[in-house]
Amino acid sequence: MKQLRRYSMLIILMASGMVAQFSVSAQTIKDVFSNSETKIFFYGIDFTKTKLIDDITANESDIVQRQYAGINQLAINEPDKFDLKAAFGRTIEHDITTAVKRNEKVNPDAVKSSTSADFNRFKESDVADIVKTFDADPKNGVGLLFIVESMSKSAKAANIWVTLFDAKTKKVLMTEKMEGKAAGFGFRNYWAGSIKDVILDIKKKKYKEWKSKYGG
User: Fold this and answer.
1) pLDDT the model gives residue 27
2) Distance between CA 72 and CA 80 in Å, rounded?
3) I need a surface site. Which of 1, 45, 83, 134 has the fewest CB within 10 A?
4) What dihedral do alpha carbons 189, 165, 202, 211 form, nearest 10°?
């Protein structure tokens, strides 16, 4: 009888584990926009394939070693200005460690460009390739990553792919390119301004559009 009870408990535990595992992996874009209880976890701002256009005086090594991390940290340290909670209608936890480490490995020689066409060169497959190699905790459900395609000094704007993905499978659930206007003093603040502009646009109108498109 005791062995039977142990066996039954083992079956229950295994089944519970399978259910828990399924609940982590079965994230859909409809879950995100139909249920504000669906967890979104912010992984930061990815600059691994970013092109800085028409800024010949910029220090590429400083950008890679300090500025990319500084922009990520600013977005976390000033939540009132980079208000992801208001934009996505829920509390959003974060861990920018992976993004910062990845950005620090960028080759400085590959950062700058003098070609205007580099402002719009990504396809959705480029975003998917970045997400595939991103180290995300499977327990975090839906990941949110801002992937910066380009920052143009002449256009005073950045192209940023707002990307939601399944943290377990690395499947991109939704990605959309948004243009953010740059503003501020100094390299960090100037380009962080484009991130802030995109978040504000999500808050004002984009989230409603996404909810209508994906949440029905």
Assistant:
1) 81
2) 15
3) 1
4) -170
